[in-house]
Fold this sequence. Notes:
This protein has about 280 residues and is α+β, with helices and mostly antiparallel strands. It is about 30% helix and about 25% strand.
Amino acid sequence: MTYCVAIRLDAGLVFLSDSRTNAGLDHIASFRKMMIYERPGERFMVLLSGGNLSISQSVREILQVEKIDSADGGEAITIWNCASLFDAARILGSAVRRVYRQDGAALKQSGIDFNASFILGGQIAHEGKMEAMRLFLVYSPGNFIEATRETPYFQIGESKYGKPILDRVITPATALGEAAKCALVSMDSTLKSNLSVGLPLDLLVYRAGALQSDDFVCIDEHNPYFHMIRSTWGQKLRQVFESIEEPHWDDGASTHPLRAPSGRFPPMKKISTPDEKIV
């Protein structure tokens, strides 16, 4: 399985992916799910992939040569000459549909769903002006949506365990270091609750306008910072939990009584008489 998360901030972008693709009892496999497409000073893009490994690997290979027609009938557009991340997302969608045309029928005949999803983000310099950093989530049919200020992050794979901390912490104004820490906590929560997600992890932090990044690390079980995150986060959660007042049924026993009057939602309770049958 997979867990990948990407965050778009005012200060830059954060990408994090695990590497587990199979978690059977006697067969655990790892493949990297992050791919970087970079021409320093001109364009920088990161692709995260999830779903069927054979599909995602095919898409990644085809993406480097895939072309779409330009609007003005000029030179075909590729990820290496496109003027915007929007066009790069269109090319990625085209690559996904190309793989479906090639393999979709055979997969269906074998009872395998065409299942793959991608996150594409980065920045492109164009005609002397910086295009805004952009982040896209691309689905199996090749269609996509873009991150907004209201929803500044995307997840693919086993997203439910790591989502709560992102919702509580991440805003467009969040600093890059804080966002990277939040992404790692989100990943740790997923690792704790789901064996189909596993180390090592790939973490990349991109600073707005840089058009390249050297802030990239592969994290294994021996990484001291991630080891600190895993132990500290669990300990702090227990401390916060223990500091919260326990429920009290007596109205006068607490400043936050559990049993509080409500005219709108009275307790649901049916009292039966000996002669009444409960159905």
